[in-house]
Amino acid sequence: MESIENNSQVIIKDVWKLYGKDAKKVFSKKLMQETKAVIQEKTGCIVGMKNINLEIKKGEFYILMGLSGSGKSTLIRSLIRLVNTTKGNIIINGKNITKMNNEQLLHFRRDTFGMVFQHYGLLPHLTVLDNAAYGLKVKGIPKGERYAKAMQTLETVGLKGWEDYYPGSLSGGMQQRVGLARALANDPEILLMDEPFSGLDPLIRRQMQDELVELQEKLKKTIIFVTHDLHEALKLGDQIAILRDGEVVQVGTPEDIVTSPADEYVQQFVQDASPAKVLTAGSIMEEPSILTYAWEGPKTALTLIRANKRRAAFIVNKSRELLGVIREKELVSLLEQETKSKTIPMDSIKKVSTVTEDTLIEDLFSIITENPWPIPVVDEKNRFKGIVTTDHIFESLSPLGGE
Ligand SMILES: Nc1ncnc2c1ncn2[C@@H]1O[C@H](COP(=O)(O)OP(=O)(O)O)[C@@H](O)[C@H]1O
Ligand SMILES: [Mg+2]
Q1: Residue 105 near residue 81, CB atoms below 8 Å
Q2: C-alpha 75 to ligand 2 mean position (Å)
Q3: 108 Cβ closer than 6 Å to some ligand 1 atom
Q4: Which tens digit of pLDDT belongs to each residue from 225-238?
Q5: Which of 81, 325, 343, 381 is buried most deeply by CB count within 10 Å?
Q6: Could you identify the atom of ligand 1 that is nearest to the CA of residue 77?
Q7: How far is 285 from 301, CA to CA, in rounded Å?
Q8: What's the average model confidence in pLDDT over 345-356?
């Protein structure tokens, strides 16, 4: 077996999949340049993958996106040879899987991959626990050990207490959690997910996405995830590969895809994206016109606020941590007091809701209405980074790309 030195965990090199007889006919110089439609017309072969080249790094959350029929399932399945490629090489962990014999393949699949598909693929006559433990049973892991491991992954996916139920009595979301638990029980290096949330209600779907992001932070698996939903792709993906008619048309980060779509086809996807679900607070925040400092006196703060024709200002400490908002009226009353304070006391400062740079704009709406002032953006240590104003939020929602 040939071995290739490269820091990518999955390398897909010049890969083709043609469905139908006489695939060899396609590999003439002339036909290979043709589109899927022409190839099909001239040879009767259906193009599943056409000269695909991709590299996926360890720990990456990698999205395959495209319209129905674009070849997403063909591609993800070819990684475990549920689909045999017609041409090209697929190297995983340095091993060329297109060259493996059945015995090698079987072990490699079991040891390296976990799979989650849209139709949960649970066995109806087995309990949740037995379903979760199924892959381990196939591997020949003794009962005690596989149950212990399955219990643990069921807990990870939030299904503790459901071990003895049968899949039929669970909601779609919960069945998919069982599917995920089953895939994780094996502790696979690479998780393959083919439209796992497509059958779920929007609310449940969003929740499952959030949980998967959290899980990924913890487990740091390589995840290859198929979706035809741009919002799902943007939310989950580190990298997104966009497929059309069996070909890769663009590979990039969510930001790349949204800000510079490679062609019409990608543009169509992006147009449908709601900016509120794509843009983050960090991308629209600005410097506040004034900022006050807790170690300065009330007189300084009041002067600054009035000079800028404001009624309030954000206030930070020496580490630039946000303390809250200090308002004109509090400053005035501080200055009217007998015992004049040299600094601004904490009980005069009003606490405020904050967001971080990666908060999506859609999650800002509920905060906008809370207060008359802009929304402060802070980092993980509560250090002040900037503000987002209501005006700016609404401006950003006019068509994408206008900045
Ligand atoms: N078993 C098969 N036999 C013939 N054609 C197939 C088969 N599986 C998929 N195809 C064709 O290959 C193309 C890609 O399909 P698929 O990988 O399922 O796309 P996606 O998952 O993006 O919807 C489609 O044109 C589809 O009709
Ligand atoms: Mg598919």
Answers
A1: yes
A2: 9
A3: no
A4: 999 988 899 889 99
A5: 325
A6: 17
A7: 23
A8: 93
Clarify whether residues 287 and 166 are in a common domain.
no
Torsion of Cα atoms, 257 then 263 then 268 then 273, to 10°:
10
Final residue before a domain boundary, out of 274, 295, 314? 274
Q: What are phi and psi of 352, to 5 degrees?
A: -135, 155
* Test site for ligand 1: of 15, 16, 19, 36, most ligand atoms within 8 A of the Cβ: 19
Regarding pTM above 0.90, the answer is no
Any ligand 1 atom below 6 A from CB of 66 = yes
Q: Which of 156, 155, 154 has its CA nearest to residue 130?
A: 154
Q: Do 223 and 372 lie in a common domain? A: no
Q: Domain with 207 in it: what CATH number?
A: 3.40.50.300
Closest ligand 1 atom, residue 67 Cα: 22
Neighbours of ion ligand 2 (CB under 5 A): 73
- Under a CB-based contact definition with an 8 Å cutoff, are residues 362 and 274 in contact? yes
Largest CA-CA distance found in the chain, in angstroms, rounded = 96
Residues 54, 12 contacting (CB under 8 angstroms): yes
| DSSP letters for 159-195 | -TT-TTS-GGGS-HHHHHHHHHHHHHHT--SEEEEES
Grouping H, G, I as helix, E, B as strand and the rest as coil, residue 399 is coil
Placement of tokens 């919002």 in the chain:
231
- What is the whole-number distance in angstroms between the Cα of residue 44 and the centre of ligand 1? 14
Domain tally, the chain: 2
Asked if 119 and 205 sit in the same domain, the reply is: yes
Q: From the CA of 210, how far away is ligand 2's center (Å)?
A: 22
Is pLDDT of 120 > 50? yes
Closest CA to 197 of 276, 115, 119: 119
- Tell me the residue range of the domain where 330 lies: 282-396
The first and second tokens of residue 373, run together, are: 């002032």
Query: Do residues 240 and 349 both lie within one domain?
Result: no
Residue 98 has pLDDT above 70, yes or no: yes
Q: Are residues 312 and 242 in the same domain?
A: no
Domain boundary residue, one of 274, 299, 325: 274
Q: Which residues contact 100 (CB under 8 A, 6 or more apart)?
A: 1, 81, 108
151 and 75 co-located in one domain:
yes
Q: Which ligand is nearest to the CA of 193?
A: 2
Least confident piece of the model among 77-91, 308-322, 358-372? 358-372
